[in-house]
Amino acid sequence: MGERSSRGRRAELIALTADTVELRVSRRPANRDEALALALDQYVYCYDIVHQGTETVDALSAVLECSDYWIFWWD
User: Which residues constitute the domain of residue 12?
Assistant: First the structure.
């Protein structure tokens, strides 16, 4: 992922399978702009989290503001 998404956040690997990565992060985005930038980075890394999950990058950013977990999957 991009530098913006990892700066200041430690991520602990919770689960790893052939097509899934689950992480627990130590710090949520501090504000809406940071959450949107992180959501864009995550979308570039794994577009399925939007296309098959939240449906919009804006909705993903809202999830990132209130969750300590990042989940990525690929079909």
Answer: 3-73
Looking at the structure of the chain, the number of domains it has is 1
> pTM value?
0.84
φ, ψ at 34 (rounded to 5°): -65, -40
> Do residues 39 and 4 lie in contact, with contact meaning Cβ atoms separated by under 8 Å?
no
Q: What band does 10 get if pLDDT is binned at 50, 70 and 90? A: confident
Based on the number of CB atoms within 10 Å of its own CB, is 53 exposed (0-12), middle (13-18) or buried (19 or more)?
middle
Helix ranges, the chain (H): 3-6, 32-45, 48-49, 57-66
What SS3 state is found at 1? coil
